[in-house]
UniProtKB/TrEMBL annotation:
Protein name stated in the entry: Helix-hairpin-helix domain-containing protein
InterPro entries: DNA-dir_DNA_pol_X (IPR002054), DNA_pol_lamdba_lyase_dom_sf (IPR027421), DNA_Pol_thumb_sf (IPR037160), HHH_MUS81 (IPR010996), NT_sf (IPR043519), PHP_dom (IPR004013), PHP_phosphatase (IPR050243), Pol/His_phosphatase_N (IPR003141)
Superkingdom of origin: Bacteria
Residue ranges constituting the DNA-directed DNA polymerase X domain according to the UniProt record: 3-307
SUPFAM superfamilies: DNA polymerase beta, N-terminal domain-like, Nucleotidyltransferase, PHP domain-like, Sec63 N-terminal domain-like
Gene3D superfamilies cross-referenced by the UniProt entry: 5' to 3' exonuclease, C-terminal subdomain (1.10.150.20), Beta Polymerase, domain 2 (3.30.460.10), DNA polymerase beta, N-terminal domain-like (1.10.150.110), DNA polymerase, thumb domain (3.30.210.10), Metal-dependent hydrolases (3.20.20.140)
Pfam families reported in the protein's UniProt record: DNA_pol_B_thumb, HHH_5, HHH_8, PHP
Database matches in PANTHER family: PHOSPHATASE YCDX-RELATED
Keyword annotations: Nucleotidyltransferase, Transferase
Ranges where the Polymerase/histidinol phosphatase N-terminal domain occurs: 331-408
Organism: Deinococcus hohokamensis
Length: 566
DNA sequence: GCCGTTTTCGGCCCGACTGTTTTCAGTCG
């Protein structure tokens, strides 16, 4: 079997929890597996250490779960999951990906003979769902929408998943010059297949990947292999050094860009394929993509700019070496701590920020309306400010902030005099996602125009592959940000990536952005790489990203922003 | 199932919203 990862450990725990809920077991038992998964996500220890210490000291992982997880690492079988799964048809588990369906409703559907996303879609259409007890016409319609979303999403992975797998494969292929290709290589927010290119032959790739990928098979057309890692489809394309440039270009994509390049090549009497660049059937050596472009007399687009949205636009965008990088980010803003729903102290988060090479941390815990997230009352916020001042006195570079809930009417969850005590303010929506579009737009415009709001947090509320953003007039909200000088967040959490790069691309030059991790654990502070991928696809330079400023410059920026609104 | 103990078992986050009901169950953040 493939090696256990943090993701495979937390995956079996979460799936077990879902199944126990579905089987009607005591809710707290399922919750225990979920808590254990969350705890494993939050711990900083690597998987090897966790296993060798038998999970000693990991909160929420007791004797039973620790023993079962160790057995899973050895045998690939997690006993509680096997037990539960044997009682449930495999397709039923997929129903947990449908928004609005929980264990009780899924159980009701299963009892009615609906046991997969496909059969659920049919049952929504033919009226069976609407006629079930506890369901109705409105439920059936919203479930159908959610099923279509889930079916479309199931073939794709988050950028973080794709890059994790890509890097694991690259490690196994070291020496063959592995290159992250395909959607993830271009920094796209989601990817269908994880693709790599290497210099070498298929037999060597196959030998290297034994034990890393499963179900490895040679391609039928051309040199390469396909297989799966953690259930995710992977493809490795390979070839000799003299065709590597063509290989990279073709497998990097996008499809429309490659087809355009192939058409340009044909117009010049060449044939461009993954097997190389040929003229009159004779191979033209092209070790790099730049060589291909030079032979064809074309400019080579940076991989970031190869989507259809960049057509006719990319030449006016900054060159790749001018785009913002993770190293350019000085401050990590909008972060959580144990004060609300984070898993680490402010001090631990700040230390990790410095270890990653950034220069300051901005606190950003939840405000009082966020009960579920242990949001801070005004009294607790002031106590937190006192702690921050002590940490600052001890030499930690911090700025104070909060992620303040935008209330029903667009007002904020703390009064102005409290907001004014903070160095910066992120305003975010965490409630009333289904407000009618006109009211939602009005609500967000009001919040974005508030004189003390520094940054509008995760502006659309989307969760990639899970739910679309709230219905509203996004351009009207972004125009309000432009008018009031409010910074727009690029939430770097790989499950959000909100604002979407396509909107950032459209609004670049008119807005200032912040690349924020929204980290709840120290490891989450490294999510900057995903937010930076968004910014690069949108052509952003460091000057357009507010948290490339050093601490004092950032504080001065906020002062100017506030002064301009008086 | 985990935790913290009154060391043997009770408590584990909860308010708001939605669509279904006919007073509330289920889901979400």
């Amino acid at each position: 079997m493939a090696e256990v990862t943090r993701k495979s450990l937390t995956g079996v725990l979460k799936t077990t929890a879902d199944l126990l809920d579905l089987l009607g077991q005591e809710a707290f038992r399922a919750q225990a597996y979920r808590s254990a998964a969350r705890s494993l996500e939050a711990t900083d220890s690597d998987v090897a250490d966790l296993l060798s210490s038998a999970f000693a000291g990991v909160p929420k992982v007791g004797k039973t779960i620790a023993t079962d997880l160790l057995a899973f690492a050895g045998t690939g079988t997690f006993a509680p999951l096997e037990d539960a799964a044997s009682q449930v048809p495999p397709g039923v588990l997929g129903l947990f990906r449908v928004r609005g369906l929980g264990p009780k409703k899924i159980r009701a559907l299963w009892d009615a003979g609906i046991d997969s996303l496909e059969t659920l879609r049919e049952a929504c259409r033919d009226g069976r769902v609407a006629s079930l007890k506890g369901f109705g016409a409105k439920s059936a319609a919203s479930i159908l929408d959610a099923v279509d979303f889930a079916l479309a999403a199931q073939a794709r992975q988050h950028l973080s998943t794709s890059l994790d797998i890509s890097e694991a494969l690259a490690g196994a292929l070291s020496g063959l010059d592995p290159h992250s290709s395909g959607d993830a290589g271009r920094g796209l927010d989601t990817a269908d297949t994880v693709r790599l290119t290497v210099t070498g032959c298929a037999a060597e790739v196959q030998a290297r990947l034994a034990g890393v990928a499963e179900a490895l098979d040679a391609w039928e057309d051309g040199p390469g292999l396909k297989g799966r890692v953690d259930g995710v489809p992977v493809e490795v394309a390979c070839g000799p050094a003299e065709t590597r440039g063509a290989l990279d270009l073709v497998y990097d994509g996008s499809l429309s860009y490659v087809q355009a390049m192939q058409a340009e090549a044909a117009a010049r009497g060449f044939e461009l394929t993954g097997q190389g660049l040929r003229r009159g059937g004779v191979l033209v050596p092209t070790p790099t993509g730049a060589d291909v472009a030079r032979e064809l007399g074309l400019a080579l687009r940076p991989p970031e700019y190869r989507e259809p949205e960049h057509d006719g636009l990319w030449e006016a965008l900054p060159a790749a070496d001018e785009l913002v990088t993770v190293q350019d980010l000085r401050g990590l803003l909008h972060t959580h701590s144990v004060w609300s729903d984070g898993a680490a102290t402010i001090e631990e988060m700040a230390q990790q920020t410095l270890r990653l090479g950034h220069s300051f941390l901005g606190t950003g815990d939840h405000s009082r309306a966020a009960h579920y997230a242990n949001g801070l009352s005004i009294e607790r916020l002031r106590a937190q400010l006192k702690e921050v001042r002590e940490l600052q006195a001890a030499g930690l570079p911090l700025v104070t902030g909060a992620e303040v809930d935008i209330l029903d009417d667009g007002s904020l969850d703390y009064p102005d005099d409290v907001l004014a005590e903070l160095d910066y303010v992120v305003a975010s929506v965490h409630s009333l996602f289904t407000l009618d579009p006109a009211r939602q737009t009005e609500r967000l415009i009001r919040a974005a125009s508030h004189p003390l709001v520094t940054i509008l947090g995760h502006p659309t509320g989307r969760l990639l592959l899970r739910r679309p953003g709230y219905a509203m007039d996004l351009d009207a909200v972004l125009a309000a940000c432009e008018a009031s000088g409010t910074v727009v967040e690029i939430n770097a959490n790989a499950y959000r990536l909100d604002l979407d790069w396509r909107h950032v691309l459209r609004w670049r030059g008119r807005l200032t952005f912040a690349i924020n991790t929204d980290a709840h654990v120290p490891a989450g502070l490294a999510d900057t790489r995903y937010g930076v991928a968004v910014a690069r696809k949108a052509g952003l330079t460091p000057a357009q990203v507010v948290n490339t400023l050093e601490r004092e410059e950032f504080l001065a920026f906020v002062s100017r922003q506030r002064a301009a609104r008086l």
